[in-house]
Specification:
Length: about 325
């Protein structure tokens, strides 16, 4: 089984990315042939600074390696190191009805957030379909927000195969229902567009955790933990016993948000401090990182080459 996922290097990764996307990829690492790529072409739809994009691409690679990606088990590559995806995106574009893209929420959402209506943003799902189909992926772990893009991919897979013969494999999305939407420091969905994130290796994690917005129920009063951001975040980091303990303390009363925030901070450090140590080590050797990415690209291109030969022949080139 081939498992593939991608992440955009469009900013520093945060807790939402870790628990919503990275972790399910690490959990699947033992289960198949894995591919993880850094979607730097996709990030160009929103990042207009070459230096920042190059840096962010490396940062994302370091984050993944530090948090659990094993380059012997997962082929990690930069999207731009497999330029054949652009070629395939064009072939797919020629079969993509405008209406299919016009219906995409992510495009409409970007417009609503004031982004310029570029062709790149509009065609984003076609490039994503090319990423997935070119690797003959069976399973694509993504967050809920990407569900529609997977539907577009499946649609294009079908259209291509109907037109040119059974060439592409039909991929399935893998969206674990257990993965909740991680709240940000203000209680709404954690997202870099909302400026409410806590980054994986955030130097101001303490300040941000202590600043998580809470209601003003007095300390002594019993509180319902479910739905409370601190408690919801704590669930991600703590053991089931620790979670049950915090829930009981909230319900009993006499347990304040400040104490809960301290417990959250501690649990965060327990998980991420070892990753941070590993990251610092990896960051000392940029050449080794480059070697991992280059080796990953070579493997990804080799996997895509025979399929692309078939595709070119089928379309008449
Ligand atoms: P952002 O919203 O910060 O721009 P992205 O859209 O780049 O994040 O997210 C990349 C992936 O990380 C998403 O597909 C999703 O799976 C996951 N993700 C991001 N934020 C959250 C969140 N708050 N809760 C759960 N998963 C999230
Ligand atoms: N659109 C995805 C996101 O923002 C990133 C992505 C690009 C991707 N190409 C992909 C994810 C292919 C999975 C497979 O999260």
């Amino acid at each position: 089984m081939r498992i593939l996922t991608g992440i955009q290097p469009s900013g520093k990764l945060h807790w939402g990315n870790y628990f919503g996307a990275m972790k399910s990829m690490f959990d699947l690492q033992e289960k198949g042939e894995n591919f993880m790529f850094i979607a730097n072409y996709h990030a160009m739809t929103t990042v207009r600074d070459g230096k920042a994009l190059r840096e962010a691409t490396k940062e994302v690679a370091l984050d993944y390696l530090a948090c659990g990606l094993d380059p012997d088990k997962t082929v990690m590559y930069r999207q731009s190191d497999v330029p054949e995806v652009q070629e395939l995106a064009w072939y797919l574009s020629c079969l993509t009805p405008m209406g299919l893209l016009e219906r995409c929420h992510s495009y409409k959402d970007k417009m609503a957030h004031g982004f310029e209506a570029t062709h790149g943003l509009f065609a984003y799902p076609v490039l994503m379909a090319a990423d997935i189909l070119i690797m003959q992926s069976d399973l694509v772990p993504v967050g809920k927000d990407q569900k529609q893009h997977l539907e577009v991919t499946r649609d294009l897979c079908q259209k291509f195969n109907n037109a040119y013969g059974e060439i592409f494999k039909m991929p399935d999305a893998y969206i674990p229902e257990t993965v909740a939407t991680i709240p940000g420091t203000d209680g709404q969905k954690m997202s870099k567009s909302y400026h409410n994130t806590i980054e994986l290796f955030d130097v101001s994690a303490k300040k941000k955790i202590m600043g998580i917005v809470t209601d003003s129920t007095p300390m002594e009063e019993p509180k319902e933990p479910e739905g409370n951001s601190i408690y919801e975040m704590y669930k991600l980091f703590a053991t089931p016993e620790e979670v049950a303990e915090m829930a009981a303390a909230f319900r009993a009363g006499g347990y304040g948000y400040g104490t809960a925030k301290k417990a959250l901070l501690q649990a965060y450090h327990r998980l991420f401090d070892p990753f941070k140590e590993k990251r610092d080590e990896l960051a000392k050797d940029p050449d080794a990182l480059e070697d991992i990415l280059k080796a990953g690209a070579a493997r990804a291109r080799a996997a895509a080459a025979p399929l692309m030969e078939k595709v070119r022949k089928a379309v008449g080139l």
